Amino acid sequence: GIQVEQSPPDLILQEGANSTLRCNFSDSVNNLQWFHQNPWGQLINLFYIPSGTKQNGRLSATTVATERYSLLYISSSQTTDSGVYFCAVARTGGGNKLTFGTGTQLKVEL
Amino acid sequence: GAVVSQHPSRVICKSGTSVKIECRSLDFQATTMFWYRQFPKQSLMLMATSNEGSKATYEQGVEKDKFLINHASLTLSTLTVTSAHPEDSSFYICSARDGGLPEAFFGQGTRLTVV
User: In what helix (H) or strand (E) does residue B89 lie, and over which residues does it extend?
Assistant: First the structure.
């Protein structure tokens, strides 16, 4: 099956700092989504981004499908950004089944 | 975005009993829903694909007789954990897509504890 690796696995930031999270995948995809999992387990949709660049407030994402990676940028981080960030991909021809990455645990401190 | 509701959010059951978890799409119809399991500090692992009106498709290594899936309508899929044991304790979460739209949305998840 498709492999999805995220880096870094853990990240600690001071409030106000910027960060870049990376997602590498091993096959061509027709779906890529970024999620934030809050402390209660809820997955919050951040971006649907199989290719290109999108921005939503302090967050932006870029996917370079031909090179099989995606980046999530968090600017001016806040304590409420803490949690686990997952990317998930659906392999082209794989029936829309999402395979989740290994996750990045983010902690933003005051 | 589309809303997916999951119930219950938390359940504790005795070893040997069965537990049913519901996943509903509130404002759209979903011919396909997906069930995932997440152990502490780990990623989400796909268990099965729930297809409305037909049998579910299970991922390799997932026992279909233990994890019964029923998708009887376009807005409801259920996962029943039969004869639950402590090793079945986990976070179960469902997802659904709104028809032809590609983005998947997730329920709130169900934390199952088997004692």
Answer: none
* DSSP string computed for A22-89: EEEESS-EEEEEEEEE-TT--EEEEEE-SSEEEEETTEEEEEEGGGTEEEEEE-S--GGG-EEEEEEE
CB-based contact A5:A99 (threshold 8 Å): no
Spell out which residues of chain B touch residue A30, defining contact as CB-CB under 8 Å.
102
Q: pLDDT truncated to tens, each residue of chain B (115 aa)?
A: 789 999 999 999 999 999 999 999 998 999 899 999 999 999 999 999 998 888 999 999 999 999 999 998 999 999 999 999 999 999 999 999 887 788 999 999 999 999 9
Q: With CB atoms and an 8 Å threshold, state whether A41 touches B38.
A: yes
Burial annotation A94-104 (CB, 10 A radius, 16+ → b, else e) = beebbbbbebb
| Predicted local distance difference test score (pLDDT) of residue B31 | 86
Q: Which of B34, B102, B109 lies at the smallest CB-CB distance from A41?
A: B109
Going B92 to B97 to B98 to B99, the CA torsion angle's sign is negative
User: A41 touching B, CB under 8 A?
Assistant: yes
pLDDT score at B15:
98
